[in-house]
Structure formats: structure tokens, C-alpha cells
Design a protein that fits this description.
This protein has helices at about 15-25, 45-50, 70-80, 95-115, 135-145, 160-170, 180-190, 190-205, and strands at about 5-10, 30-35, 60, 65-70. It is of the alpha+beta class and about 210 residues long.
Amino acid sequence: MPTKQPITLFHSPQTRSSGALALLEELHAPYSIHALNMKAGEQRGSAYLAVNPMGKVPAIVHGDALITEQVAIGIYLADLFPEAGITPAVGDALRGPYLRWYVFYAACFEPAVIDKALKREPGPTRMLPYGDLDSTLNLVVSQLKSGPWLLGNQFTAPDVLWGTALTWMTGFGLVEAVPPIKSYVERWNARPSVKKVAQIDADLLKAQGNT
């Protein structure tokens, strides 16, 4: 696997790809940014649709590998750089919970919150990937009570995904900032990677004329 090759991140500032950028920083990975101006619609242009036909960020290219979807990107990148110490190895007791919380985000948490945000009638519980909203949110709060991080004392790669998402979701009032979530978000936003990404995004927005 070409771990030493630089990673190209297709990124638009202050979007889901900011989490992928924060993960690259946490991993101390070599990377370059291919910036997309979403306000100008570049993510829907033919050049980017050839990369990701869904027209969404993030996407990464690493050697011959193209990966889309933020959870897949997170798992792929974290496994590339085990020396960063935020990726439980196969056989580690934390590996199963690590994968669980990565996938739970995409399969349950985000769909539940998006249904809430769009005021959609979710339908019968038995038909929903997340079951019901209250159970989904309560499970997250219960998990964070074991803190300081998602898997307890050890900061791991899924914390990048969850920290970024919960920052946005509490900021927009989609998720209530109850004490376990509030303290978790504060810990995440105190990390150097978050501050660096905020500056990169601010510089990109300025360069794109979107400030």
C-alpha cells in the first residue's frame, strides 16, 4: 500500500470535508488540497463529477485509490497511519467499538438528525435504519458519559467525525447540547487540528471570495 504517497483531498471549506481535513492533521499525513468553490457550483461541474458522480465532498485520491464517503475515508486514512496512535488494530479490544461508532454515525445518527431537520415523518420504526430518534440520541449521550472520548480515555479517529458533526449540529440547534455532548464538543474544539482547519478554511473562503 502506497502509504508514503501524498493524499489529495477534494475539499470545500466549512463542509463535511473539513472533518476529513482535521483527520489528516491528526494523523500528520502528507496531503494536498484540491479546493472546490461550492457557492460557484464547482462540485457539480463535469471535472468533479468525474471524481465523485454524487457531486459531494469529501473525496480523496491516494495512489490509484479513489475513496468517497466520509466514514470510508476516515477508516481508510486512519488505517494508513497506525503510528499516529488513534487507530485500534485488528485484534485490539477497541477495534469492534471503533468500527461500530464509525458506522453508527452514517447508518443511524445522521439519517435520524436529517429527518428531524427536514421535519420529515420518519415512518414506521421497523422500517427505519435508526429505529427512532430518541433512542438514537440517548445512545450517543450514554456513550459520551464514559468519556472523555467516544471510546473512553483513548482519543480515536471516530472522534474526529463525531466532534466535527456534533459541533455543527449543536450549533444549528439540531442536537441539544446536554452536558455530555457540550463537554465533548468543547474538548474536540480545543484540539490543535480544529484550529488549523478553521484557519485553512478561512483562507480558502477568502481566496474564493466567499467571506
